[in-house]
Amino acid sequence: MADDIVLVRTQAQPRVRVERALTAVVKYGFLGFWAALCLLPMLLVISTALKDPVVETGNPFQLFSSFRPENMADAWTLGKFGRYFVNTVVIMVPVVLGVIVLSTMTGYALARFDFPGRSLVFWGFVLGLMVPFFSLMIPLYYNLRDYGLLDNPLAVILPSIAGAGGTGLPLGVFLMRAFFLDMPDELADAARVDGCDEVGVFRRIMVPLALPGASALAVLTFLSAWNTFLLPLLYLSGEENRTLATGLLLFTGGRTQELELTAAGTLIMIAPVIVFFLLFQRQFIRGLTSGAVKG
Amino acid sequence: MSGLATPSPAVAGLRGRLLRKGGRRRRTPWPLVALFVLPSVVVYFLFMIWPFLGTLQLSLQAWDGYAQTKTFVGLDNYVALANDGDFWNAVSHIAVWAAVGTIAPIAIGLPLAILLWSGTRFRLAFRAIYFLPVILPVVVIGLVWGWIYNPLFGVLNAMLEGVGLGDWTRGWLGDADTALYAVLFAAVWSTFGFCVVMFLAGLQGIDTNQIDAAKVDGANASQRTRHVILPGIAPVFTFVLTITLVGAFSVFDIVYVMTRGGPGTATETMAGYAYKMAFGRNFAGYGAAISSVIALVSLLLAIILLRYRERGRG
């Protein structure tokens, strides 16, 4: 009996091994193909950004054919990407703060307070998740003009907080409400027994507990505010207010000259995004998936 | 901490007082509600709801964006829209976009997610790499793919030449036959990673005991996929479908960056057409009518899909 088993194993093993190896090749080939497709355009940006002026070399997209890190400094100053960077930060910071503070408060109220019109407010915000920017882009332009906000960073900040850029309050209120609904009542009740008023309960007990949810929301909001493109394109057309997104678009304007500076500007725009994503990947993916998986 | 986690009799008593008969909580005093809710509602109303209602109103008017008076024209804008060949041209592009732009990322993302989930080395690295294009700004995606498609020195043409398909080279974005698909491919490239992450999260929520049980009962891999795995990720599936489909109807930014709707009108989208009409030619009312159509279709689709999802769960 024992000999039989050994015989079977020695015969079967090579075939199983070949099959396994083939499966692995197909599997990692498929995984690797799409990974390469994701990475190659990134390499193209980095390589072009660090290249001698394209006019001289004549071959703009050969990977890493020359090395000229000064391009980064040139794009920052001559290409005005430093200015655009600051402008983008000036918009991004108030958007993130505004969305976090307002969503946390309103999400908490919708989860824990009892007041007439509560579900109306909730569904009103949910509606905003489904309304595309296009269905308000035209009147918003004339509204902002009437408020005297055109060409003021507030013309991007306020609509972004409201949710016109895709995330904002609709997503924030939705996420934070769900987060507070999942929290046990007991902690808040204990604080009330100890003489804490409702604002105190919120500030001392609930806000610290909500930090994981708020940080996931912050990461999503940061990315969307950093990348937002249509809002500044439409409502912030002046040169002095250009963001990285609109600055990059107008810098290229279809030209193929100074390609290395365009690539360097691109790198200036995406480097913070990529670093941020790699650092906060967990929060990011949690924020993105929490609504979908649980429902 | 342990004292807080398990409610003491005193806490339970207080909670009893806070709860009315029938389990309803006491009404929160209105100043508190106003403090927590009003600032959000005001910002949201002024910069989302109000302009949204403005679109519906403006779609019933003729206005150039500057004149003091707007003329009420009833449904004239919609009637004109129904007879506008350029609009239907844009609709046909959106139909292609909705079909390919929804199916392709799912068809690429689902197998990748299943492979990652079923146990793979470097799983987290793969997931991060696939997600990289999703976080990139649209401007950058359009720019880089513009380089790849460049007729003179683009990587795509160079690769085709390299494998002996030199006849296929062309200006991918300048050729009316290929422009739409070239833009669409860049869009698919930037969304399939989203599908991978969502499906992977859905798969990780599946109870592995169910799969083991199916294995014990003799279900093979494809049966397990059909009867355990796919039903398990159904909620995620409809969510992804809703997002990509609704997104397809309002697609604009990537097209604007890559082709501005051209060459000619070969890549014009509904939203791009609305933009052109309202801001390029100052037909604000007409542009608003197009926007209203986009909004109605998106909302209808979202409601249908979400209701379907609710029913599937119940």
Instruction: Give the distance, in angstroms, between the N- and C-terminal Cα atoms of chain B.
Output: 38 Å
SS strand fraction of chain A? under 5%
Number of domains of chain B: 1
Largest sheet of chain A: none
Largest sheet of chain B: 2 strands, antiparallel
Overall shape of chain A: it is globular
How many beta-strand segments of chain A?
Answer: 0
- Name the CATH homologous superfamily of chain B: MetI-like
Q: What CATH architecture label of chain B applies?
A: Orthogonal Bundle
**Count of separate DSSP helical elements of chain A:** 14
Structural class determined from secondary elements of chain A: mainly alpha
Mean pLDDT of chain A: 86
Q: Remind me, CATH topology of the largest domain in chain A?
A: MetI-like fold
Could you give me the name of the CATH homologous superfamily of the largest domain in chain A? Answer: MetI-like
Key structural traits:
heterodimer; A: 295 residues; mainly alpha; MetI-like fold; 2 domains; 14 helices; 77% helix; 0% strand; disordered N terminus; B: 314 residues; two-stranded antiparallel sheet; 16 helices; 71% helix; globular
